[in-house]
Amino acid sequence: MTKLTDLTIRGALDGLAAKEFSAAELAEAHIQAMEAGRDLNAFITETPEIALERARESDNRRAKGDALGAMDGVPIAMKDLFCTEGVLTTAASHILDGFTPPYESTVSANLRSAGAVMLGKANLDEFAMGSANITSYYGPVKNPWKATDGKDAGKDLVPGGSSGGSAAAVSGGMAVAATGTDTGGSIRQPASFCGIVGLKPTYGRCSRWGVIAFASSLDQAGPMTKTVEDAAIMLGAMAGHDPKDSTSAPMAVPDFAAALSGDVKGLKIGIPKEYRMDGMDPEIQALWDQGVNWLKAAGCEIKDVSLPHTKYALATYYIVAPAECSANLARYDGVRYGLRIPGDSLDDMYMNTRGEGFGHEVQRRILIGTYALSSGYYDAYYIKAQKVRTLIANDFKAAFEDVDVILTPTAPTPAFALGEKQEDPVAMYLNDVFTVPTSLAGLPGISVPAGLSKSGLPLGLQLIGRAFDEETLLRAAHAVELAAAFNHKPGREG
Amino acid sequence: MSLDKDTVKNIAYLARIRVDDEKLEPLAGELSSILDWIEQLQELDTDGVPPMASVAAMKLPQRKDVVTDGNCRDAVLKNAPDPEDGFYTVPKVVE
């Protein structure tokens, strides 16, 4: 029998149905793995009692023949950006010290209704701002993978970010699956760095209610899983219209898993020439070419497409996201929740609290955003960026008149060593060069592990779909997954 | 676009973030390098392009203007750092 901590969602559901093991045993195995993997720092808060209680409830439902949810008894990690009733919720920030929400986010509530079992709250970059999970107040997360060759051989590597704890937990066998959130690549890039599948759904597919806000026009929750089929199952359990989020789409949730027919004959795949950047790592280029060949062999039609404004996407993002973050994070004032550092006046208290409560990267982004929105600069920065954003979205609209899915690399490099790129913010931002355009356009994107670098680290390919067409996207991703047959595991045992 | 120390100090005040004086200079350097890099947007002609206002092509829904929630004062105050008699507290603002 497969080790319980190697199971996929599908495998866990099948094993539970066949009574090979109980949900409590499955939870227990993952709780042990979570404890054994504490050196990775993937969790901020472990919730073993909640996990065992919910697992036993699931076992009871199964024993009594009650109706079961789509993930009944499956243990998952919850990114600590989702508010969870009665459980510390930190956004990995000092400023939310002790914050225990009296309510549950819609996505985590949906997962709970589907029977998923929460193991704990996964570490992340502070307020989801980062690409290496090094900005967390609770310390960096380590990638379960180690390079076997090259300059980083044997070193501790970053898991990517911001959903780095989620990615490390799934990759390290500490959770069957995890929730992530993606604002500019925060699901897809860590999925690529840790050798798992990460899906950012269409903006509006999952409710943002109860998800601690970073940039509201970009934030979207999604699944991080071991397989494409698992991503389909978990997205179905997370998604759905929510009247409490006015940007949540009033649409029915399709049976995403049913879309994985394996048949992609005639599907048109676009290859954007602007993603072939100067100085691109030949390894990444080779993997991308390999992906093209796999889809061709599966019967897809490959077409060149042009996304001419790609090179402006990152600069656009680094106006829009900080602007929205400076507005969203204004709520942390030391009055209503979290940290308070006293001061002589109200202003003094605000400044002391925010000066001590926010980490350096978060402060940097709030300041950039404040500047971009300030009188005299608003048109030159914010309005300009929103205009370029229209051009970027139009690029995709035009491309999707010719093709069904777009194929690109997920990230320009494999995971890098902890401590690298820390001093230069722009170098860090470049990690998201392939994922940010999709986010600006609100489109769904998925990273699928597709191969290993020469240094022995996982590399992902990204597929991008039309708005609200996750079904075609998942079908194409499944074809890449089948062709890649990626079955490597990190060196360490979970 | 290069920001000087005083400008950064003013932005930090607008954002209500205390930044120690000796940190203003390095911060000005970091922010300037980000803004320099963002400057590339100016080379694009965006005349006549509408700024993107909404990602999802849908109309903002409206609901009836009625009370849907309430009577949960204690839950609302539960996370407050220093509540008193059912209120939030702040330093004295009126002399």
Would you kindly provide a brief summary of this structure?
The complex is a heterodimer of chains A (494) and B (95). Chain A is an alpha/beta fold and 494 residues long.
Classification by helices and strands of chain B: mainly alpha
Overall geometry of chain A comes to globular
Approximately how much helix is present in the residues of chain A? 25-40%
Please tell me the overall pLDDT of chain B: 92
Distance between the termini of chain A: 17 Å
Second rung of CATH, namely the architecture of the domain at 4-250 in chain A: Alpha-Beta Complex
Oligomer: heterodimer
Main β-sheet description of chain A:
11 strands, mixed
Write the layout of secondary structure elements.
The complex is a heterodimer of chains A (494) and B (95).
Chain A: H1 9-17, H2 23-36, E1 43-46, H3 48-64, E2 75-79, H4 106-113, E3 117-122, H5 164-171, E4 177-182, H6 188-194, E5 197-200, E6 220-225, H7 228-238, E7 268-272, H8 282-297, E8 301-305, H9 313-328, H10 346-357, H11 360-373, H12 378-399, E9 405-409, H13 425-429, H14 436-441, E10 445-452, E11 458-465, H15 470-484
Helix pairs in contact in A: 2-3, 5-6, 7-15, 9-11, 9-12
Chain B: H1 5-14, H2 21-38, H3 73-77
Descriptors for this entry?
heterodimer; A: 494 residues; alpha/beta; Amidase signature (AS) enzymes; eleven-stranded mixed sheet; 15 helices; 11 strands; 36% helix; globular; B: 95 residues; Histone, subunit A; flat
